[in-house]
Design brief:
Layout: H1 9-26, E1 33-34, E2 41-42, H2 43-59, E3 64-67, E4 70-73, E5 80-87, H3 89-93, E6 100-106, E7 112-119, E8 124-128, E9 133-137, E10 144-146, E11 159-164, H4 173-185, E12 188-190, H5 195-204, E13 209-213, H6 220-229, E14 234-236, E15 250-254, H7 259-266
Parallel strand pairs: 3-5, 11-12, 11-13
Antiparallel strand pairs: 1-2, 3-4, 5-6, 6-7, 7-8, 8-9, 9-10, 13-15, 14-15
Helix pairs in contact: 1-2
């Protein structure tokens, strides 16, 4: 690598602010939905993908780019970007503003060097290298360091996110069981269909925990990396299967102080 990963943080934050603003401005517009194979792809996915890939090519011309919405740009580099231009496309397609965008830089061992995510509606970017986490706002200013003392502590589990990946059937028995258990034991169960949105909610205290089944998409490297930098370790769930980018196929995220309560509620080890 010709540069240290930290050197890319300001430019990557600028890029994610740009793509987040494009997604935000597109929310009230009429979408063109495609996806003959049963998947959902909108013009906003493709536009966001083009913005990100163009920015990454300018930022690091020698790096490979793997994007959910485009053929790989292979350079033979030991470093590669993993891009999810719009996380929550199904929400976007039906007019729900629960969408995010993410980019992660991985090395030859599939270890994440840095990751960034945009919250278009909240007007915020989270970005982290291997040592620190930063935030940047649409309101201007530079990168602001986020420390553990700035984040919500362990105050019990009242609001929980529950996600079912596209690889699981709608009538999956474990998802149905969890949905029932959570509904009886917590104040609110939120199904965003966007792990990136949930990372922002965990960072702000809008969620106390996240439970995912079969969520193994292009957003996973950024979700895992940012959660860890937030001090919220990921614990694998009991569902087997091929992991995404070396990470769990099903998982939970919560403050370490809440893990025993989460295990009791879900019946999963943490």
């Amino acid at each position: 690598m010709s540069k240290e990963p930290q050197s890319y943080l300001p430019s990557l934050a600028d890029l994610m602010l740009l793509v987040g603003e494009h997604i935000r401005r597109s929310l009230p517009t009429r979408l063109h939905v495609t996806g003959a194979d049963g998947s959902v792809v909108t013009n906003v996915d493709l536009e966001a993908d083009a913005i990100i890939r163009s920015g990454l090519e300018a930022l690091a011309p020698s790096f490979t780019i793997l994007s959910e919405e485009h053929a790989p740009r292979s350079t033979g580099s030991d470093l590669y970007w993993v891009v999810d231009p719009v996380d929550g496309t199904q929400n976007l397609a039906i007019g729900l503003p629960l969408v995010g965008s993410s980019v992660a830089l991985l090395n030859r061992n599939d270890q994440c060097e840095l990751a960034a995510a945009a919250d278009p509606v909240g007007g915020r970017v989270l970005i982290a290298d291997q040592h620190a986490l930063y935030s940047r706002s649409w309101m201007g200013g530079g990168l602001e360091r986020i420390r553990a003392t700035d984040l919500p502590g362990a105050k019990g589990i009242r609001r929980i996110g529950l996600l079912r990946g596209n690889s699981l059937a709608r009538n999956d028995s474990e998802f149905a069981r969890l949905n029932n258990e959570l509904s009886m034991n917590v104040s609110r169960v939120l199904q965003t269909r966007s792990p990136i949105v949930d990372v922002f909610l965990l960072a702000s205290g809008g969620l106390d925990a996240l439970v995912c089944l079969g969520c193994d998409g292009y957003e996973m490297p950024a979700v895992v990396h940012l959660a860890r930098r937030l001090g919220l370790p990921i614990a694998p769930g009991p569902i087997g299967g091929q992991g995404a980018w070396g990470h769990p196929y099903s998982y939970t995220i919560c403050h370490p102080g809440n893990k025993d309560e989460l295990a009791k509620i879900t019946g999963w080890p943490t």
